Amino acid sequence: MDRIKEFLNESADLKREVANTLAPQILDAINHVRTSFENGGKLLLMGNGGSAADAQHLAAEFIGRYKRERSPIPAIALTVDSSILTCVGNDYSFDDVFVRQVKGLARKEDAVIAISTSGNSGNVIKAVEAAKQIGAVTIGFLGKGGGKLKDMVDLPIVVPSTDTARIQEVHITIGHILCEILDQEF
Q1: How many domains does the chain divide into?
Q2: Per the annotation, does 116 bind a ligand?
Q3: Packing angle of the helix pair 164-185, 23-38 (nearest 10 deg)
Q4: For 87-113, what is each residue's pLDDT tens digit?
Q5: Any binding-site annotation on 176?
Q6: Which residues of this UniProt protein bind Zn(2+) (predicted)?
């Protein structure tokens, strides 16, 4: 019982710290994504493992609905097409699974959210480089100090933790805040 309470309190404490330190960056992310949608752009999301699941989860909230009925909001998780992932992974390399999609799908009006608990995922780094060359705004949901992506993305949101599970819990909370606010506006 004590261990369960400890896990819950660690998660709550980290979220309180994020509320007190990262709210301005979260608002900036909302504004960047809003501008992208207002300019006819879309949201591209990517990550590996649990971060891939977060990318899919958030894209589903925009395409489906978050809390209210509305028109679909254009969002694509670059983690879901098994044919693209296995083709590119086999024919090129795993480091190219997102960059090929960014080069084929991203436009300057788009926003790209790179989700990485370490900030050092090679396939995410290559995709962010391509997105920046295209002119899309890049946002990082990061942790563990932000890694290489911290200095690459236009807007890094670095969760102040080294615990992967706690970082992922905050990433999905930030994603839900993004959905909540934009859901009310579109």
Answers
A1: 1
A2: yes
A3: 50
A4: 999 999 999 999 999 999 999 999 999
A5: yes
A6: 57, 61, 168, 176
